């Protein structure tokens, strides 16, 4: 077996697989190193199992709505959590097997080893040394735990997916994507949930008004949202834990503590110093818009870089890179101002483009016009549910180019993609206004903000 390739890919997650497959389709000889499960974070402990759990929580809410429509749904509809987990695993196994088949068909050599650089274009993989003119680093990231006493008593998102029964009382620390999503899922599936965030709101990197509306939804869902909360220490308390805080508030007891305070790049053991690849202060690999590092022939995509830690960002940039290296197309280039993203809260939160504050900082407050709508969506309203949907357009300039769409409410997760196309096409507010509405929907409100 030859150890010389056109491309060596480190990591068989979202970015690695996408890059390897596209390169092989262009005729490149590809080796992909993956010591763990082919599919990486998204398939095994990220987007896929998370969305299945979110859907389960959504179904629980639909059952509650069904009662208000007159269906004789009993008050308690028990969930067989372990049966759900078994189904979830079956779905994941299918996805992994499909990737395995695809790699096999395309002749991609799968090497079940950690890789590290021995020199530019030289990768040590177990007992082998592989060589290639191009190396793609797609080694992703891992969750971080805080450096405080008792931190190891908590679990992270991997630990959440390992749960085999619903925990009774859960404390979640961290108000980013994972904290918000798992708070909603656990509450939706019956746990008592308290979410502790450091600042004044959850999702601090999103448009500020989304944070306000999300807080209302969380409280309506029965989640205890505690702002300005800094955990100082964690102690064991019987079968559970007790959280101590930096201020003088009372300790908080929970059966399960879940840390969701961010993820760090998995780049430490790659031997990058040996080849001189530049990293940011946070340890992420620094790449340019074309995914090149500062070392010729070494490229990087996905969570190991400073780019948005989202699966579509990893896959699209990896395919774009493979198109440039082995094909003839210019290939996809990520525009940081055009990243659509959904936080699977209950209801979901969806966003593309600039927040109002970011638009003001960039163009000046006088140039920015925000348009908003808030209403009670029909599905819940007929049963007396007070939940609201919030929609916001951020527009800039005299011609009101739409630079941001921000939404929180039922079904906005499925509404965003088409509006992301509109933003990319350079739509003006006048284009929204001139588009015929679809009635009765929630989405129509975005074209009715006259
Ligand atoms: C709980 C959770 C939920 C998420 N939900 C979403 C979502 O809904 N939507 C979304 O877009 N994104 C979501 N994400 C983010 C998404 O999972 C990541 O952005 C995506 O997986 C990044 O892909 P990647 O290829 O960079 O890394 P990964 O998918 O993490 O793959 C990296 C792979 O590299 C391997 N590896 C590590 N070191 C080496 C080495 N030295 N040699 C060889 N292989 C190595 C690892 O084993 C791993 O399999 C979620 C993440 C989490 C944690
Ligand atoms: N739906 C999705 O697309 C999705 C879902 C999950 C994760 N992801 C991706 O994975 C990344 C990682 O998710 P995450 O939620 O772990 O990180 P995150 O960066 O989204 O959120 C972490 C939060 O924890 C806070 N924090 C940091 N240190 C803290 C501390 N000591 N105490 C309390 N709070 C602290 C941060 O201020 C931040 O708000 C996300 O940024 C996102 O890119 C995406």
TrEMBL record:
InterPro entries linked: FAD/NAD-bd_sf, FAD/NAD-binding_dom, FAD/NAD-linked_Rdtase_dimer_sf, GSHR/TRXR-like, Pyr_nuc-diS_OxRdtase, Pyr_nucl-diS_OxRdtase_dimer, Pyr_OxRdtase_I_AS
Lineage of source species: Bacteria, Pseudomonadati, Pseudomonadota, Gammaproteobacteria, Lysobacterales
Species of origin: Chiayiivirga flava
Assigned protein family: Belongs to the class-I pyridine nucleotide-disulfide oxidoreductase family.
Family annotation (PROSITE patterns): PYRIDINE_REDOX_1
Ligand binding (NAD(+)): 174-181, 262
Disulphide bridges: 42-47
Entry EC no(s): 1.8.1.7
Keyword DNA repair: no
Domain Pyridine nucleotide-disulphide oxidoreductase dimerisation: 339-448
Entry keywords, A to Z: Disulfide bond, FAD, Flavoprotein, NAD, Nucleotide-binding, Oxidoreductase, Redox-active center
The protein's name in its UniProt record: Glutathione reductase (NADPH)
Biological-process GO terms, alphabetical: cell redox homeostasis; cellular response to oxidative stress; glutathione metabolic process
Entry superkingdom: Bacteria
Database matches in NCBIfam families: PRK06116.1
Positions of the FAD/NAD(P)-binding domain: 5-317
Active-site residues, as the UniProt record annotates them: 439 (proton acceptor)
Molecular functions per Gene Ontology: flavin adenine dinucleotide binding; glutathione-disulfide reductase (NADPH) activity
Entry's transmembrane regions: none
